[in-house]
Amino acid sequence: MKIAVLPGDGIGPEITAEAVKVLQALDLKFEMETALVGGCAFDAQGHPLPPATLKLAQEADAVLFGAVGDWKYDKLDRPLRPEQALLGLRKNLGLFANFRPAICYEQLVGASTLKPEVIAGLDILIIRELTGDIYFGQPRGRRTAVDGHFPGSEEAFDTMRYSRPEIERIAHVAFQAARKRSRRVTSVDKANVLETSQLWKDVVTEVGKLYPDIALDHMYVDNAAMQLVRAPKKFDVVVTGNMFGDILSDEASMLTGSIGMLPSASLNAGNQGLYEPSHGSAPDIAGKGVANPLATILSAAMMLRFSLDQPQAADRIESAVKVVLASGLRTADIHSEGTKRVGTREMGDAVVTCLTHKTTTKS
Ligand code: IPM
Ligand code: MG
């Protein structure tokens, strides 16, 4: 099992180190290799996704990714910005299916800004298409070169684009995921305005006919954004395009109390995957040892389940996280009165202790 570890920028290295520690505490054999990605790769090697990093990722069974980005790169030409590393990995590895679960842990009900009754027991899964849409359609702007020149015009555009096969394959992923859950899929679009969305809706409806056991409904994205805070538990699997999925998954994450808790998986057709926390690089708290490593640790669990065929190890990590939360340990983002505030490393250590303790008592 070969894992490419790409810590990236900001809090990326700190949180990734904790996830690596947790993986090493399992009695499994991994080959792990680390490489630069994002702003730090640009600084060291002149490109956010150096060829050696891409090669390492392509040859691995899975990629454990921290986060990329920092304000200081905002002035760079678009292709050199840290975020392009992530987009490049997604595109090059064909990681079209992005799973973003939003689960409200019992112990964290109080950490959300929403009323407990609205979010207690919440368990929804956002499936975001990740290699198409306006993210990858033709752009034109001040920092996009046209034939090697920057037009410097006062107009800019990006193109929203989807093809039938792209929609079909993500729809299948959603319906199949729904079969393992409560058999409901909500497809989110903006078909009342956008042609891309009309195609999306039509194709998802067609694919849905192949899954008569799954209830499908459609929702406009503005309404979905509203329903997500009004009655989030009405959703189960949400499937949507790249742009809407980006926005709705951030919104969904806050229902659970903290974006610091949410893992994600991005898979290709061969189950090779990139695993990363749903949150960003948080440069404001980087290097302070206060970031929550749980989203990355839970991403490592998803990696074990989806790409490395180790579901039991994944379960062990997830239960260890629950035990640690139940014991009252909290990083700053989920801290509340009556709980014990800890740093990044202590949180990782606690998960490791819990894992190794369990192994000893079992054997
Ligand atoms: C995400 C992030 C990325 C995205 C950025 C960093 C390119 O916001 O993974 O949600 O927009 O997809
Ligand atoms: Mg995002």
Bound molecules: 3-isopropylmalic acid, magnesium ion
- Going by CATH, the homologous superfamily of the largest domain would be Isopropylmalate Dehydrogenase
Low-confidence stretches: 359-363
Total beta strand runs: 12
> What is the H/E string?
EHEHHEHEHEHEHEHEHEEHHEEH
The DSSP helix count reads 12
CATH topology of the largest domain: Isopropylmalate Dehydrogenase
What structural class is derived from the secondary structure elements? alpha/beta
- Estimate percent helicity: 40-55%
> What is the topology, as strand order, of the major beta sheet?
2-1-3-10-9-4-5-8-6-7
CATH class category label of the largest domain: Alpha Beta
Task: Report on this structure.
The protein has a ten-stranded mixed sheet, with helices on both faces. It has a two-stranded parallel ribbon with strand order 11-12. It starts with a strand and ends with a helix. The chain has two domains: 1-96 and 268-363, Isopropylmalate Dehydrogenase (3-Layer(aba) Sandwich), CATH 3.40.718; 102-257, Isopropylmalate Dehydrogenase (3-Layer(aba) Sandwich), CATH 3.40.718. It has twelve helices and twelve strands. α7 links the parallel β6 and β7 (215-220). α8 runs parallel beside α9. Helix content is 40%, strand content 17%. By secondary structure, the chain is α/β, with parallel strands linked by helices. Bound molecules: 3-isopropylmalic acid and magnesium ion. The site of magnesium ion has 2 residues, from α9. Magnesium ion binds at residues 246, 250.
